[in-house]
Amino acid sequence: MGNVLNSPSGTHGPGTDSITYFPFPEAVFDVEQDSRGRIWVGTIKGLARYHAETGKIMLVEAAKASQQGVVWGLMEDAKGRMWFTSNQTLHYFDPATEVFRTFSQAQGLKNRQYFGHHLCLGASDFFFGGTQGMLRFDPLAIQENPYPPQVVI
């Protein structure tokens, strides 16, 4: 019969087209569907989205500019923002505004390395696993400081 999972044609399966392959030149670590039906992809090169109309996976332009690197785990909050971890940082991307934010040890994160292990319990209880334990937070409680401190030299 041959290897039904390793064919360059894209769709595979014995007569039923039961398995579809989406070529992408980079490693994929996580896939999540948001509340609007969009499919988000965590890759070794950053945050990407699967476009059903073209069948392609494309890196998100705003995320490419941030150079966040590998995306391990993805979750959507109640505001529609996609939260994800990369090697040493936590990020969110808001598709409605194309705002991208990064949080690191400078903002209080403890882990030096994050992985794709994650869990969402309700709309306000996110967990991400890392090398030094677990990160737990309420994404809706994180507020940006509209008045950043002045730099004094």
Structure description:
Helix content is 4%, strand content 39%. It is mainly beta and 153 residues long. The strands form 4 sheets. The protein has a 4-stranded antiparallel sheet with strand order 3-4-5-6. The chain has a 4-stranded antiparallel sheet with strand order 7-8-9-10. A 3-stranded antiparallel sheet has the order 11-12-13, with no helix packed on it. A hairpin with a 2-residue loop joins strand 12 (126-130) and strand 13. The longest helix is centred in the middle third of the chain and has 6 residues, at 61-66. It is globular and about 60 Å long.
Number of helices: 1
Q: How far is the first residue's CA from the last residue's CA?
A: 72 Å
Structural class: mainly beta
Radius of gyration: 18 Å
Helix content: under 10%
Let me know the number of strands: 13
In what range is the share of β-strand residues?
Answer: 35-45%
The ordered string of helix (H) and strand (E) elements is EEEEEEHEEEEEEE
Strand order of the largest sheet: 3-4-5-6
Poorly predicted runs of 5 or more residues: 1-9
Shape: globular
The pLDDT mean sits at 80
The biggest beta sheet is recorded as:
4 strands, antiparallel
Short description:
The chain is 4% helix and 39% strand. With 153 residues, the chain is mostly beta strands. Mean pLDDT is 80; it is low at 1-9.
